[in-house]
Specification:
Membrane topology: Multi-pass membrane protein
Main location: membrane
Number of helices: 21
CATH superfamily of the largest domain: MFS general substrate transporter like domains
Number of domains: 2
Shape: globular
CATH architecture of the largest domain: Up-down Bundle
Order of helices and strands: HEEEEHHHHHHHHHHHEHHHHHHHHH
Family: Belongs to the major facilitator superfamily.
Structural class: mainly alpha
Subcellular location: Cytoplasmic vesicle, Secretory vesicle, Synaptic vesicle membrane
Pfam families: MFS_1, Sugar_tr
């Protein structure tokens, strides 16, 4: 027989403050249908009137920690990973493949090629905050489902674009839908126990790598025979599978508690406990309804102001550098080495557009190798993030990327170039994932989706600008281009060190009320006791 009990100091009864703030308690059923005597380790029995004392209370965070990581979280990991691979990685990776193809086929000047990439990020930038607000107001699941169906619809339509203006508009609408994908991380993080959270969110990067690798392999098979239109259509189809699986996803219990839907929160927690084969905590679930959710002003309270501003710059730098490297990779590979890229671009510009250079089999092979770099990047970040903390992990990732960018000043051959791009992409992708770990941890439930959404929006500003650096400025000076990326990442490394809050070893924050800070200080020093009478151990 297993019993999970919580006793939270100072919460044994309703206080006047609880009544004023609107907090109330509801009874949550335990793993037994009726109270029975509980056996202790020495064989003695506790009278049934003491088996479920009325002053035992817990929060959603406590229940998630008590139930632990199990079958439910494994399923959720696969579904979230599918969203990451199909809706995000594939649609992003296709940009570096589509650009040179349309540049030659439609005889586009370089600024129109850059605009084709940037318009996707314009859509993402304009929608990220909106999707975050929808997720905070109407639920994480609602926002995610709408964004996925939107991306699927316009992703397929873009394959039928007859002229440049059509594909420009349709890819912008695809970007608008992709802006809601980061909310899958919000939903995912709110179901993860603290010890598994960083590792699990980082492992989502594996699905990103799988998605990018799959996109490159799909391009190798489809582009020579069927062309870019079929590549766009086939790349959107995995979203259909995710859209179907979305109906299995439950709404976040943390969101339900904050929105006052305590019955749904209880049902969700019971479902997780049943699937994991773990006991539900006995006692009363603390519910604090908060009507004022998802407000931009909450990101700029004195407690979060500097965190928000620094995170915006960090996310900007991450996307600016990551997508810049993705675009530079195809440019460098087509040139053969860094030093000859400017002269090659001038020669190509002087030739007839029919002599444009399409991506070759060797280009696809090297593109695949640099894409595979994201796997070791995840492993390195996974190893260090719980050892040195989130802030130092992001700072280290930015510094290594900056250093590799400076090494590209040397006239290295193709093999060394591939190695440097491999290392740079490994670390910048790991730093990106570290930001995805840190951001949901630092904001409370009431503004978590909005905080992540605004950060994602700032990232799209960086991604919006980067094509004009990686594709247009590159024609004028390859060295100036590398200085811009290296300098930006050095500043981002400094910004990471100056973040005021380190979230390593800290639970997700439930409320943005003023008393939240005092509550979490107490909880950060010691977690509620979880007594399992069959093991007698404390978790």
């Amino acid at each position: 027989l297993r019993v999970v009990k919580f006793r939270r100091t100072g919460e044994s009864s309703k206080s006047d403050e609880d009544v004023i703030s609107g907090e109330h308690e509801i009874q949550i059923e335990g793993v037994r249908t009726e109270l029975e005597p509980v056996e202790l380790e020495d064989g003695a029995a506790v009278p049934k009137e003491f088996a479920n004392p009325t002053d035992d209370t817990f929060m959603v965070e406590d229940a998630v920690e008590a139930i632990g990581f199990g079958k439910f979280q494994w399923k959720l990991s696969v579904i979230t990973g599918l969203a990451w691979a199909s809706n995000y990685a594939m649609e992003m990776m296709i940009l570096s493949i589509l650009a040179p193809q349309l540049h030659c086929e439609w005889r586009l000047p370089s600024w129109q090629v850059a605009l084709l990439t940037s318009v996707v990020f314009v859509g993402m930038m304009s929608s990220s905050t909106l999707w975050g607000n929808i997720s905070d107001q109407y639920g994480r699941k609602t926002g995610l489902k709408i964004s996925v169906l939107w991306t699927l619809y316009y992703g397929i339509l873009s394959g039928f674009a007859p002229v440049y203006s059509w594909i420009l508009v349709l890819r912008g609408l695809v970007g608008f839908g992709i802006g809601g994908v980061p909310q899958s991380v919000t939903l995912y993080a709110e179901f993860l126990p603290m010890k598994a959270r960083a590792k699990c969110i980082l492992l989502i990067e594996v699905f990103w790598a799988i998605g990018t690798v799959f996109e490159v392999l799909l391009a190798v098979l489809v582009m020579p025979t069927l062309g870019w239109r079929w590549l766009l259509i086939l790349s959107a189809l995995p979203l259909l599978l995710f859209a179907v699986l979305c109906f299995w996803l439950p709404e976040s219990a943390r969101y339900d508690v904050l929105s006052g839907n305590q019955e749904k929160a209880i049902a969700t927690l019971k479902r997780i406990a049943t699937e994991n084969g773990a006991p539900m905590p006995l006692g009363k679930l603390i519910v604090s309804r908060q009507e004022d959710r998802g407000k931009m002003r909450d990101l700029f309270t004195p407690h979060f102001r500097w965190t928000t501003l620094l995170l915006w710059f960090i996310w900007f730098s991450n996307a600016f550098s990551y997508y810049g490297l993705v675009l530079l990779t195809t440019e460098f590979f087509q040139a053969g080495d860094v030093c000859s890229i400017s002269s090659r671009r001038k020669e190509v510009k002087a030739k007839c557009s029919l002599t444009c250079e399409y991506l070759t089999e060797e280009d696809y092979t090297d593109l695949l190798w640099t894409t595979l770099s994201e796997f070791p990047g995840v492993l390195v970040t996974l190893w260090i993030i719980d050892r040195i903390g989130r802030k130092k992990t992001m700072a280290l990732s930015f510094f290594v990327f900056s250093f590799c960018s400076l090494l590209l000043f040397l006239c290295v051959g193709r093999n060394v170039l591939t190695v440097l791009l491999f290392i740079a992409r490994a670390f910048i992708s790991g730093g990106f994932q570290a930001a995805y770990v840190y951001t949901p941890e630092v904001y409370p439930t009431a503004t978590r989706a909005l905080g992540l959404g605004t950060c994602s929006g700032m990232a799209r500003v960086g991604a919006l600008i980067t094509p004009f650096i990686a594709q247009v400025m590159l024609e004028s000076s390859v060295y100036l281009t590398l200085v811009v990326y290296s300098g930006c990442c050095l500043l981002a490394a400094v910004a990471s060190c100056f973040l005021p809050i380190e979230t390593k070893g800290r639970g997700l924050q439930e409320s943005s009320h003023r008393e939240w800070g005092q509550e979490m200080v107490g909880r950060g020093s010691h977690s509620p006791g979880v007594t399992r009478s069959n093991s007698g151990s404390q978790e």
